[in-house]
Amino acid sequence: MTLHAEHHRYRKPRRNRGAIPSVAGMVKEPILPVMASSHPIQTLDEETISILRCPVSGSRMHLDPSDNCLVCEVGGLRYPVRDGIPVLLPEEAKLPPEFETLEDFRKKFGRLGG
Predict the structure, then answer these.
(1) Is the pLDDT of residue 69 over 90?
(2) Could you give the number of structural domains in the chain?
(3) Residue 114 maps to a domain
(4) Whole-prediction pTM value?
(5) CA 25 to CA 13: how far, in whole Å?
(6) Do residues 75 and 58 lie in contact, with contact meaning Cβ atoms separated by under 8 Å?
């Protein structure tokens, strides 16, 4: 390696003044457009939904656009979708009417409790 090449190897990258700064290798623009919550179907495609699983039961989920949520196929736990982003926190999920607590749901449908 030449002295000139060695110098450039350790040089700090230039900053483009006025542009949005980026972290090395990260995209400057959001990958998913920010959508109004009434249009979750545009940001959650079928391929993405097919990958997601309920953190409690491990079951597949499907989108319920009328309630703007993801519904677990096993047990019916309903996770909200906010601004096109699924919130897969069990504490944020709506329980089916037959369950009073998340612990009751976990006892019946939980991966570990079952």
Answers:
(1) yes
(2) 1
(3) no
(4) 0.60
(5) 12
(6) no
